[in-house]
Specification:
It is built from 6 helices and 4 strands; from the N terminus they run H-E-H-E-H-H-H-H-E-E. By secondary structure, it is α+β, with helices and mostly antiparallel strands. Helix 3 runs antiparallel to helix 4 and helix 3 runs antiparallel to helix 5. The chain is globular.
Length: 190
């Protein structure tokens, strides 16, 4: 898909590789980022260290992973991940559409009534993963992304900060995107 999207752009080179064994020289990039990838690897901290090695000293490194205690950490999401092996990707896609186009609007209505809101939140957390973002197409994508991977870990801000520090990054700051999103400056101390 990336090759198709950028087929007519001479300034883009698409390279497929392993984030834990990147096919690039040390310090070859001015910047590096990973959004929604490292929490799908067996060792996210090692992934950030490998990414940081490819960035020149003084370049920036950014990372965003699933936050602990939020949607991707819900018991309902874990249950659906466990079901994926039985339902397959088509079943997951069906549920993603069902949740995005039918459940989400229904739950939004339930949230308007104080007596139903707490029940709706409990159902979402424990039984049926539902996302509340404005665009239904993004709800489909994010639900599917939540319930299909074999590896999907969640993390805390202190944990993410420690990854940056162990990768040799300095001036690490949390970004406003989510609680487990940060940017730092690469150092050759790594």
């Amino acid at each position: 898909a990336a090759r198709q999207n950028f087929a007519n752009d001479p300034d883009v080179l698409i390279v497929q590789g392993d984030v834990l064994r990147p096919p690039f020289k040390v310090g070859v990039f001015d910047a590096g980022y990973t959004i929604g990838v490292l929490h799908h690897t067996p060792d996210p901290a090692a992934g950030l260290r490998c990414l940081t090695r490819t960035v020149r000293e003084g370049g920036w490194v950014a990372c965003c992973v699933y936050p602990r205690g939020e949607f991707y950490d819900y018991p309902s999401v874990a249950r659906f991940r466990a079901l994926r092996s039985k339902l397959g990707y088509r079943g997951a896609l069906f549920y993603s559409w069902f949740s995005a186009y039918l459940l989400a609007p229904l739950f939004e209505r339930m949230f308007r009534y104080g007596c139903l809101a707490e029940h709706a939140r409990r159902i979402e957390r424990e039984l049926l993963p539902v996302l509340h973002i404005p665009d239904a197409r993004w709800r489909v994508l994010d639900i599917f992304d939540a319930i299909t991977p074999e590896i999907a870990s969640t993390h805390t801000w202190p944990e993410l900060r420690s990854w940056f520090e162990s990768a040799g990054c300095r001036d690490v700051v949390q970004t406003p995107w989510c609680q487990t999103s940060a940017v730092g400056i690469a150092s050759r101390d790594c």
